Amino acid sequence: KKEDIKVKTEVKVFENKHEAKVEKANADLAMKKAKWAQNLQMGDVKAKKVVALREAELQKGVEVMNALTQTEKLKAKFLTKASIE
Fold first, then answer.
1. Rounded to an integer, what distance in angstroms lies between the CA atom of residue 38 and that of residue 44?
2. Where are the beta strands (DSSP E) in 1-85?
3. How far separated are the first and last CA of the chain, in Å rounded?
4. What's this model's pTM, rounded to 2 decimal places?
């Protein structure tokens, strides 16, 4: 009878230790998944910022070219007007 209780106790201790290991592994996996999701989200945010920055640079270039074109048109207009007068 004592031997039976001892074996059952050892089995229960083993089961508890095994269950604790499984729970720890599951918790570690959940933490890793959360970290991966966070890294993925950060990558998306960074990529969107890079795209927005590039779009702003291109828009600035377009605006500079438009301003230069307008300046040249005005110069030509005033030059023509000055030539006529």
1. 10
2. none
3. 125
4. 0.58
